Amino acid sequence: MSRDHVxxxxxxxxEAPPAALTGVETPFLELLARxxxxxAYEQPVLLARAEGRPAETIGALExxxxxxxxxxxxxxxxxxxxxxxSALFETAHDLAGLRDLDAVLRAIVQRARSLLGTDVxxxxxxxxxxxxxxxxxxxxxxAARFQQLRLGMGEGLGGLVAQTARPYVTDDYFKDGRFQHTxxxxxxxxxxxxxxxxxVPLMLGHHVIGVLFAADRRARVFEREQIALLGSFAALxxxxxxTANLLTETRSALAGLERANEIIRDRSAVIERAxxxxxxxxxxxxxxxxVHDVAAAVSQVLDGxxxxxxxxxxxxxxxxASRAEGHAVRHEDDWIxxxxxxxxxxxxxxxxxxxxxxxxxxxxxxxxxxxxSLLLLARRSAADAEQRVRGxxxxxxxxxxxxxxxxxxxxxxxxxxxxxxxxVVLAARLDGPAADAEQEAxxxxxxxxxxxxxxxxxxxxxxxxxxxxxxxxxxxxxxxxTGLARRTARHLGTAVHEPVTVGASAPVRDLAAxxxxxxxxxxxxxxxxxxxxxxxxxxxxxxAEDFGFLGLLLAGDRDIAGxxxxxxxxxVAYDERRGTDLVRTLDAYFTCGMSPARTKDALHVHVNTxxxxxxxxxxxxxxxxxxxxxxxxxxLALRLHRLSAPAQH
Length: 649
Prior knowledge:
This protein is of the alpha+beta class and 649 residues long. The chain is built from 22 helices and 15 strands. Strands 3-2-1-6-5-4 form a 6-stranded antiparallel sheet. It has a 5-stranded mixed sheet with strand order 12-13-11-14-15. Strands 7-10-9-8 form a 4-stranded antiparallel sheet. The protein is elongated, with a radius of gyration of 52 Å.
């Protein structure tokens, strides 16, 4: 009977009037109509017997029951086959629109499990490289060890299917001796609790590529139709895998062609970039560009960030490898090209965050490093010439060789220095330990170069003298000699990577008209330098104003007049201008133990007069003039002033 006929009979039975259903088959037709279970078909027979119906009636009911059960079984079989065909059709539809192989395989396993009514369904694929088969997709599995099983050829039921290319079924896995049991496979099957297992091969032509399984956690006999159905799903799974492989190969071939096309385009672009960078670098050299101009030009060409770095700020191992090989080398995500000249390492060009670099682009970076070395050598030559000129002018000022203010101003102007502004003379010396004379000489050269560079950038002068360096730097704004000395010590120490001690003079002025002030300032700066070293402050910077009378005790050639002038000079000058008596009042105040009452008796004046004079002293010397340290210096300056007074008349 066809599917259309069965559906027509069911509709006729449902639409027939109740009066037409008067025979013994009526209860069974009703059971068929509502899809009752097989057990329900016994009820009409049992009811007739209980009512004492005739034997003919009971016999007719028995025959009608058997016929109804056969119809029921036929209908169920047709429904099952319809569901199977629908599932196969849906799977084929999934395969036709294949986008994700794993998704298609999961759908196949899920539908196989549902239609066969098993606890678990799973699919394994062969691994040609390892010569075994492994779990690819599972549905209904709960044991992690089972989901990660690998079966050697011939091991377990799946290994036997993969080896023989034939379906195998076992009603009780652990009692079946047709295949090889292993401890690992049995442990995984035991963890999952499987008993009955059906496995069918996945075939591509004559080759087995895997196995599709359906399994139950209880003893079960798989029917021939179920084995055939699982085989159909296995065929679809194999087709899906084959289609996916073909798609992968096609995509790979297309990607290869596209990559080849990209390489051709990139190669053409690289050649154009190489020509472009050659033109840019040539233009930079001709117009006198600097190393940072080279880095900026190469950055644009290589579409990255290129920086010039000092040797000390670059990865040492990569920099040394680049210098030894003569090529740019990769360091993490960067490329480093050493900038060298005559074996001397001048720095590096670093391409930041660009791990993939075309060989032609690498050559471009290397050529840029070569151009950078040439520019640095040219700049060094110019700097050396300027350094000599600056040193010669400062030497002439220190030795007072040229006393023509006009010529001195002209020479300083050509070096962008102004001798009419206020300056500070600084004496600088290395304080790091030297291993030998050669290293010490090299360190002094580095100090001289760093000092010359600082002088050039600050519009000052620098020269080597007395085993160290002397600088003449302008004092600007609210800056002080002490602040300038400390910054210079830090700057030079950082540049030469060794401690540098710096002593500074008090501000000096009118150097063109009074060049001897430079020599006096240098002497004062050296005394401060020696004081710092004696106090254990190597690597620091200070000026005469920082030491007070201690500078007189620690250094030679004591500058008594300078100390007195720095300490109480404003009070002395005020007395000279106004004809007042502040110095004598201040001296009497300290002599009387800083008591205003005793001071007015010593001076024979009113106490208010003493208070007014001391208030004026405070405005001249500052609010802290009575602090113990300041008071001690002021008393010493008063004593020295008093002692030197006869020599001034």
